[in-house]
Design brief:
175 residues, 10 strands, seven-stranded antiparallel sheet, alpha+beta, 3 helices
Length: 175
């Protein structure tokens, strides 16, 4: 009777566990692009967002809140809030350093670093509410349907958001 080598079985199980752990780690390694952050995608409906966040969304108090509302993304995405317009994800806001863009820009980075990363693809404008030298650094997809906007205090990125071309231009959340 021939015995199967246990070494091959053990190595195979270890490889499978490593691949599963790697896939799981990648799933929760959010990076921002114009189309979303990690599994949170622009255009998702509320049910899809619940599955992406792995939790139920809070109920609204009345119908007026359904046209535009923000949901905190949760512990996996610190400092991140999701804007829903008419029940669909329109924008994702990042206000703390933990989540980089695909190109590596972060909240807290120098404005000059973001300009170096994105170059002349960014449109630079004065902030509507900031003091002094605060700026918006905005970039759109080629069809302008999606965008990313960095807000700066004139020196560093204070927050950024990704989403529809329209939603990234809202200056006070849902306005």
């Amino acid at each position: 009777m021939m015995r199967k080598p246990t070494f091959v079985v053990v190595v195979g199980l270890a490889l499978a566990a490593t691949l599963a752990a790697t896939a799981s780690a990648q799933k929760y390694n959010p990076r921002a692009s114009m189309s979303g952050i990690g599994p949170i995608r622009i255009g998702m409906d509320a049910g899809q967002l619940e599955r992406a966040l792995d939790r139920r969304l809070p109920d609204t108090q009345d119908a007026s809140e359904d046209s535009c509302r923000y949901i905190e993304a949760g512990a996996k995405w610190p400092g991140t809030a999701v804007m829903l317009l008419d029940g669909r994800v329109a924008r994702v806001d990042v206000t703390t350093r933990g989540i980089p863009t695909l190109s590596g820009a972060l909240v807290g980075d120098l404005e000059s670093k973001v300009l170096d990363i994105y170059g002349n693809r960014l449109r630079i404008s004065d902030s509507d509410f900031g003091a002094g030298d605060s700026k918006y650094l905005t970039m759109f997809s080629s069809d302008r349907s999606l965008g990313i906007r960095f807000e700066t205090d004139g020196e560093r990125v204070t927050e950024y958001y990704v989403g529809t071309g329209q939603a990234v231009q809202f200056i006070e959340g849902c306005l």
